[in-house]
Amino acid sequence: MTDTAGIEAVFLTTHNWGATARFFTGLGFVLDFETDHSSGQLRAPGGGPYLFVAEVPADEEPQTQVVLRVPDEDARPGVEFGDTHYGTREAVVRDPDGRAWTLQAARV
């Protein structure tokens, strides 16, 4: 199994996309893009992982998901990657305490 290449992204869900986007831009993040369904991507000016924030209904609890970059999905035997609607390949694995971690590789 090869090493991960670090943190690719942090996915956040929120009850208020606008307020959350303003919070992060107030911390220095820059809006890369905003979708027409209350979500968008932000980046820190110095680089590093991106933040993707999506609004969810009030009855859903906001969640945080850390996404780890994997340079070569084929080097991970037994881990099944699937295509995402946003152009990557992802798999979910669990650590010894049962936490879910998302692995993301470029679509080839």
TrEMBL record:
<protein>
    <submittedName>
        <fullName>Glyoxalase</fullName>
    </submittedName>
</protein>
<dbReference type="InterPro" id="IPR029068">
    <property type="entry name" value="Glyas_Bleomycin-R_OHBP_Dase"/>
</dbReference>
